Amino acid sequence: MIQSFVDQSTLKPKPRSLSNTDDEWISEIQNPKHQLLARIMASQLKEAQQMISEIVPPKQRIDIYDHKHMIPDQAFKFSEQEIRAIKYLLSADFQKKWNLEPTIYGSLVDKSNEPIFKVATLDALRKALEFLS
User: Where are any strands of DSSP class E within the chain?
Assistant: First the structure.
């Protein structure tokens, strides 16, 4: 049985190893116009990859979240009317009028437990009031 595996492995041609140069595959293209276009695109790709590696060092990620300390512009703040409207949506009067119940997940459901405000909507409204009023 082992001999049959040895025989089969000798029958298969060995796969060619890929070249170490990036441009060798381009020289295999028969059409000179296509070859030129491939060389141009390969050089642009190499240049773009080099630029990216210079901008962001490898295996390094920088995230900056500075929204809490940012002073919003007056245009981004709620007007008094908008503040009253959001406060009304959060009020017990609104919930009683429409027979809604808040859940622990920040949603409002009706008597048949159908969600009227989706999960975390109440929390989002409270945060909007806090940061934009």
Answer: 101-102, 108-109, 115-117
